[in-house]
Amino acid sequence: MTDIIIIGAGPAGLTAAIYARRAAKSVLVLEAMSYGGQIINTPDIENYPVAAHISGFDFATKVYNQAKELGATFKFQRAVEIRDNGDTKTVVTPKGEYEARAVIIATGSENRKLGVENEDKLVGRGISYCATCDGAFFRNKTVAVVGGGNTALEDALYLADIAQQVYLIHRRDSFRGEEATVSRLQERENVTFVLNSQVTKLNADKKLESVEVTDKAGNTRTLAVSGLFVAVGRIPENQNFASVIELDGAGYAVAAENCRTKTPGVFVAGDNRVKDVRQLVTATADGAVAATEAVKYINA
Ligand code: NAP
Fold it and tell me: Which CATH architecture has domain 113-230?
């Protein structure tokens, strides 16, 4: 029996592990992939207090090591179900079942697909969801980024240093991401904004060769690109836990600022929770709150 099982080793889950261990609770972190969550794809974090610049990978590694040094146990297994037994919870993975007094769901989110024909087939052959992972394959080539949030803006900025030409395709004429990053992109000679436009077709032989883009007036044009970086947002990873948490219409877990869900002993922290601001700093804050509430719940 573990005191607290944390599902997800992103910034929220790792911070929860640090807080729970400092409250002397035993902690098991279950992570489906590798530690760090989506922040490992961010090349340069500039808006987290203390460091003016740190890569997402370095940030995640530091927090992971901090949690491990404090005594959190990690198992790299995907949690597929939580069973509520009243005073205890059972977390199920394909490799086994784990009992805890409290569970914190910090699963974050996964990439949203563009939904254009052949998108899946071309992943690894021109289509990518991670500029920092795959950008180097497109040195001196022409690429496009699609999306208007911070991820798309930062990806475009990152790729502008590598690729010869970057198109930034966005379906509206104003961006959801930070104005400061938009300004930096506007200063880059090799970045072209393609606004009020959607990618409507992917042209490929063995690899992506061009994308068809249609604007709001219905005009279509073809952009010759060898890479298309899709950054159109994320989908919360809560579906496996719908029996113990309430989900809103978009799939986010309903929980107030105290991170408590409808099931006593089940907490939710990070980007998969209903909230207005999804940032690294709000994810780590959630981790602290969820762990503190879980400790209170266990000690009550
Ligand atoms: P996001 O903010 O949800 O933006 C998604 C973008 O994709 C929006 O501009 C949206 O357009 C567009 N979009 C959605 N579906 C589309 C579709 N089917 N076709 C074309 N465009 C589509 O997602 P994100 O950029 O991944 O960011 C997620 C969260 O992480 C945000 O809160 C963001 O601020 C945060 N983040 C922070 C940092 C940082 O702090 N350094 C870095 C990266 C991300 P509309 O605008 O028209 O809806």
Answer: 3-Layer(bba) Sandwich (3.50)
Domains 2-110+234-299 and 113-230 share a fold: yes
Task: Give me ligand 1 centre to Cα 172, in Å.
Answer: 12
170: closest CA among 190, 187, 150?
Answer: 150
> By the 8 A CB rule, do 73 and 27 touch?
yes
The pTM assigned to this predicted structure is 0.82
Q: Residues 60, 63, 69, 73: what is their CA dihedral angle, to the nearest 10 degrees?
A: -70
> Is-catalytic flag, 134?
yes
- Whose CA is closest to atom 11 on ligand 1? 148
Contact 199, 174 (CB under 8 A): no
Percent of the chain with pLDDT over 90: 93
CATH number belonging to domain 2-110+234-299: 3.50.50.60
**Which two structure tokens, joined as six digits, stand for 25?**
């609770």
Say how far apart CA 119 and CA 295 lie, in whole Å. Answer: 44
| pLDDT averaged over every residue in the chain | 96
